[in-house]
Amino acid sequence: MKDDESFAAQLGSGVPLFVFDSSFSVSGAQPDAVFLEALNKMVANSNPEDSSMMGQVCSIDGCKV
């Protein structure tokens, strides 16, 4: 728990605080463009080969395994 608190304190202290992918954060009340920028950075820095679910989707009836 203390590690989580320390990590969160490093990301920002505004309320609300949104954390994306444990790497990008948006602190305080921000316009939509700031959230979009954070999400775009997250996607740009992601490694799609790390995702075992890449390209798979589920229907309303569930997921095929």
TrEMBL record:
Gene3D superfamilies from the UniProt entry: Glutaredoxin
Alphabetical keyword list: Isomerase
Protein's UniProt name: Putative Isomerase
Native source organism of the sequence: Pseudomonas syringae pv. maculicola
GO MF: isomerase activity
